[in-house]
Amino acid sequence: MRSGRRGLGVLAAVSAAATVAALAAPASAAPHRGGNEFNPYAPSSGHSYRHGALPTRAVLNKMRAWSKQNSPHAAATSARTLAYGGGVDGIGVQSGHSKTYLVFYGTQWGTSSTDANGNLKFTGDANGAASAVQQMFKGIGTNGELWSADLTQWCDGAGVASGATSCPASGANYIPYQSGGVLSGVWYDNSKASPSAATAAQLGQEAVSAASHFGNTTAASNRYAYYVILSPHGTNPDNYQSPTQGYCAWHDWNGDVGVSSPYGDIAFSNQPYNIDLGASCGTHFVNSGTAGITDGYTMTLGHEWHEMMSDQNPAGGWTNHQTTSQYYQQENSDECAWIAPGQTGGAANISFGSFGSYAEQASWSNDTNSCAISHPIVTHGTGSNTVTVTNPGSQTATVGTAKSLQLSGSDSGGLALTWSATGLPAGLSINASTGLISGTPTTAGSYSSTVTAKDSTNASGSATFAWTVNPSGGGGCAAPGQKLNNPGFESGATAWTASAGVIDNSTGEPAHSGSWKAWLDGYGRSHTDTLTQSVTIPSGCAATLSFYLHIDSAETTTATAYDKLTVKLGSTTLATYSNLNKASGYTLRTFNVSSFAGQTVTLSFTGIEDVSLQTSFVVDDTALSAS
Question: Among residues of the chain, what percentage have pLDDT more than 90?
Answer without folding.
Answer: 65
